[in-house]
Amino acid sequence: MILHDEPRRGTRAEYPHADRSVYLDTACIGIVPQSVARAVRDFVDQVQQVPADSGTAHHGRLNKARDAARPRVAELIGAQPQDIALVESATHGLNVAALALPLESGDVVAMADTEYIQMGVTWSQLARNGVKICRIPHQGGEITVDTIDRYLDFDVTALALSSVQWTTGYRADLAKISEMCRDRGIMLIVDGAQHIGAVPFDVSQTPVDVLVSSGHKWLNSPFGTGFLYLSPDIRSRLHRPISGFFAANPPARTWGEAFLRPDISPFQEFTYTDDARAWETGGTSNYPGGVGLSAAVKLILDRGVDYGWECILSLTGHLLEGLRRINVRIVTPQAVDSRSGIVTFTTGQNDSDVALAAYLSEAGISVSVRYAGGAGGIRVSCHWSNTAADVDRLLDAVRSFSPLPAT
């Protein structure tokens, strides 16, 4: 196990705030590393310069800079670049997927009662089309394979599941759930916002139909970034969106070259790419965000996904060990196979949890309070940039919180 209080390959230099405060709230908002901020600043500097050739050529370079995020995201999750669409958030990706999936009146989407609020917002709006929602109850904050297995017997068309639950940090057994869905012909839609960037995940080993993730949490990318993975098998079944022209195949090598031809017309017959990018906006897009996402994922790849996960696993283990010695109740399932970067605990009362979080904030320690389906409490996010000393400061502050019952 990695010694979680030793410097990690220059990690602390990427996060200068780390020496001034204890940030344990990545599950809410990740901190943008120095190298990512520098990449975005360099991009902004670039677009302030008059291009040496033409605006058209300049625009082409901007497209390439943004598009560089696709192969890096693909490498991160074991996919191919053509499987990746760049979106502005997990919410954006989830909504695009919901509209694209071949769901009809009478179809059933199953989801857990501890899911992120956007899951409910997205799927409930399909009720106007006759799509039904099947509620899967949690058991102690866990959404187990056995529970899902029982509910998938109710003529379920699709399962929408967060691979890591946002309130409890429970990590689902996606390998078994994926196999179960494939055996029954059920579409599997995964929200990986609390998973990707913290815990390794490979879609070539664990197939899913759809995977969405925001960029501003564990990927430490700027706001307004994220990705949508669409498997090759599901893409042929999806409703085609009203695409932007970048999703159309240009009548020349590039659209820039096509614009030079006198016969170009908005009434010509268009053909479209079959790649996942067809489900992007398809026009001039969030270029600074794409550049930031590309740099953020590169940093994770350079450091090593497995290495980062080992750091996180070590830190969460250290935190759980300390919490067991304090008079609080640990909400997060503690089995290693169910762990993530999130550890949640509670004093047993909501008002006391809120007061403790405020007390920690005053002490320079950032955490969140989150609940869903009756499960939750004080949510602590252990990022790979944190150290054991950060965790110890949290534990010391929790012990000193006066309303906390004595052990």
From TrEMBL:
Highest rank taxon of the organism: Bacteria
Positions of transmembrane segments: none
Keyword Iron-sulfur: no
Gene3D superfamilies: Aspartate Aminotransferase, domain 1, Type I PLP-dependent aspartate aminotransferase-like (Major domain)
Names of the cofactor(s): pyridoxal 5'-phosphate
PROSITE patterns linked to this entry: AA_TRANSFER_CLASS_5
Keywords from the named record: Aminotransferase, Pyridoxal phosphate, Transferase
GO function term, MF aspect, one: transaminase activity
InterPro entries referenced in this protein's UniProt entry, alphabetically: Aminotrans_V_dom, Aminotrans_V_PyrdxlP_BS, PyrdxlP-dep_Trfase, PyrdxlP-dep_Trfase_major, PyrdxlP-dep_Trfase_small
Sequence ranges assigned to domain Aminotransferase class V in this UniProt record: 22-394
The family this protein is said to belong to: Belongs to the class-V pyridoxal-phosphate-dependent aminotransferase family.
The protein's name: Aminotransferase class V-fold PLP-dependent enzyme
Species, as recorded: Streptomyces achromogenes
